[in-house]
Input
Amino acid sequence: MIANPIVEQAKIMAERLRSELGLPILLSTWVDDEIVCVFSLPGKDGRTAGLRAGERVPLVPPVGASFIAWAPPEEAEKWIARRADAEADEIASWLRGTLAVTREQGFHVTLRRPETEDIASMLTRAASGDRTSDFYRQIAAYVEALDIEVAQPDMLNVDAMFDTLLIASPIIDSDTSAIYNLCVGGFTQPLAAATIADIGRRLTMSCVEVMKY
Output
């Protein structure tokens, strides 16, 4: 049974969103240098939004921008420094810009990386028994190699379609300063900028409702 009232309310909102959107929803949180899935509600076809409850991924840029956007500036700089190429001015500048855009619009968008296996697929294989002894190191290496531009589409380009992996909005627990992300994923086809914006706004309003409790 979930004891945390923030998580309880988030699950109520997640179930409502899943019913309205017909898409899988998950709640994740930031623990030390990892993102941990708190709960995951699959879609009608069994697809998840990317993670199952208890699964973890490293907090290495660009992964985690949806958390770090709401963290103190010193945490943002520590996060940026986790990338091997963080000393390059254009990399650090781009990441800071991504955090600013996320704060401005209230949600973060991650685009699918073309022609590669995503983290969800890697974790699914591991859950089925296909896990090597250095599995977590492989996940970490995958995250570190991600193109930083696989995020935050140009929402002003109304005619473009975006192969979207995840849309995330924050829930901040004022009692503990913990940061959660309520996320929508499992998209089976590219989304128009207007659709992304609509889902992002609905997700953000759901998170605001959770934070009232």
